[in-house]
Amino acid sequence: MHIQELVKSSRSFRRFDERVEIPEKKQRKWLEALRYIPSARNLQPLRYVVVRSFEARERFFPLLGWAAYLKGKGTPQQGERPTLYVVIGYDTRLSPSLPAIDIGIAAQTLLLLARADGYGGCVIGSFDPEKIKNLLEVDDHFGVGLVVALGKPKEKIKIVPVTGSIEYYRDEKGTHYVPKRALSELWIKTL
Ligand SMILES: Cc1cc2nc3c(=O)[nH]c(=O)nc-3n(C[C@H](O)[C@H](O)[C@H](O)COP(=O)(O)O)c2cc1C
């Protein structure tokens, strides 16, 4: 698949087939690839914690906020929850302030790597970092950036043009619609 198609097919998936675990080999391959992403001043402050066991996942899941626009209806049900979480954190001794751009690059790269292998996921920024830190039992110098929730997607997602609202929505069959702005709105000019 060309990268153009990969980016398009890499939607924010929030419903998964929970019977399908992500092989540890794939997880290692994806994390290995994250060594090569760009980093401001080449500081490479990012650190990762993987939440993999069923028991840890069950404790981790309630800490995350899902699909705010769907007002509770977008939270994955039992059986359709992610099977792997990667917490993207950073070493606060290397980067005292949040290295937000590095974190964003890592999150999107991870989503694309997973998608290329037939999996998918969703970036989660809605959580209380202190609760995440407590559960992960990490050192004080671990700052929490983003969570990437991953699994085998089990939902239909369609991209639609923005007509009024940018809020995503679902129909009665559960298809998830994501309004995206037209290129003509995004691309201001070429000098
Ligand atoms: C920085 C960031 C934080 C996000 N946080 C959440 C979140 O907490 N919960 C959630 O369900 N989705 C979250 N998302 C996913 C967005 O809702 C999603 O990207 C958006 O609806 C567009 O859908 P798409 O990714 O399929 O294009 C986040 C995305 C980004 C980039």
Give a verbal description of the structure.
Residues 9-152 form the Nitroreductase domain. Keywords: Oxidoreductase. InterPro entries: Nitroreductase, Nitroreductase-like, Put_nitroreductase_C_bac. Pfam families: Nitroreductase. The radius of gyration is 17 Å and the shape is globular. 28% of the residues lie in helices and 21% in strands. It has helices at 3-9, 24-33, 54-60, 100-116, 129-136, 183-186; strands spanning 46-51, 84-91, 120-124, 142-151, 157-161, 169-170, 176-180. The mean pLDDT is 98. By secondary structure, the chain is α+β, with helices and mostly antiparallel strands. Strands 1-2-4-3 form a four-stranded antiparallel β-sheet, sandwiched between helices. Strands 5-7-6 form a three-stranded mixed β-sheet, with no helix packed on it. Residues 11-12, 14, 65-67, 122-126, 168, 178 line the site of flavin mononucleotide.
